[in-house]
Write a structure and sequence with these properties.
Elements lengths: L2 H48 L1
């Protein structure tokens, strides 16, 4: 196997790993932001109705 082909395969594997890691991080970040928005809306509703 030539070195160029091996380098090409390693680059493809690295790109796939980076995409998967970024996807996991972004997914977690989006879930955190949505949770924060929901909690803020619930706190606003509670404070406007019961305070």
């Amino acid at each position: 196997m030539s070195e160029d082909f091996l380098f090409y395969i390693l680059c493809l594997v690295a790109i796939v790993v980076v995409v998967l890691v970024v996807k996991k991080i972004a997914s977690c970040l989006i879930k955190s932001v949505l949770l924060l928005v929901v909690l803020t809306v619930l706190a606003y509703i509670y404070l406007t109705c019961y305070a």
